[in-house]
Fold:
Amino acid sequence: MSGAVFMPRLAAVVAALTLVSGAAQAQIFGGDDQARQAILDLRQRFDQAVTAQNRLVEENTQLRRSMLDLQQQLETLRADLARSRGEREELARDVSELKKQAAALGAVDQRLLKLESAAEAASSAAAAAQGAEQAEYDAALAVFRSGDYPAAQARFAEFIKRNPASAQAPAALFWLGNAQYATRNYKEAITNFRSLLAAAPNHDKAPEALLSIANCQIELKDTRAARATLESLSQAYPQSEAAQAGRERLAQLK
Structure:
């Protein structure tokens, strides 16, 4: 091949290569732009995902704190409810105990109304002679029946102190013991009931005094002593109303 023919062909090949190279470079650079855009889009989506995840973590943390606060509030409410329930139960027990005592005192008072009326009628002549002494006793008894048991204790104690030999002293001891029972001074009440029995075992209130001693012993949780007292009541005063009430109470203890 002659040199004249080769050169034009070489120039044509170079030109073709130049065109191909330029097209390839354009294609490569164009592909780089798309890749960059894709990377930017991917990074943006990644950043958005990270931001969303951080927001979820923060919301989850706040939710956990709120749940802990709610749990603490629930525990506080449970404690308050338990304390309130305990206070209500204690109040219910106190009310029940007071009702029992009131019922016992009411039963005593009813049984003794007849005895009291008979005693007052029998002693009307003596009452006229003893005037002030009887008035003092009656005043103390009126205070007891009004329900002011602390004041009644003071009145009857003063009466006994001022009139130890009075015919009304045993009755005053009886009502003093009942006033002490009403205020839960069970041991002092037992002492005064026993003083009545020692001073006047045949007094019309003696059977009721024995029954009252048993009631005090029951309140003191001394069931064994209460049972013995009730048995003594039935033996000593078998025909009395107090003995009948005592037998019913004894059956309940068994």
Notes: The CA atoms of residues 43 and 49 lie 10 Å apart. The chain is about 90% helix and 0% strand.
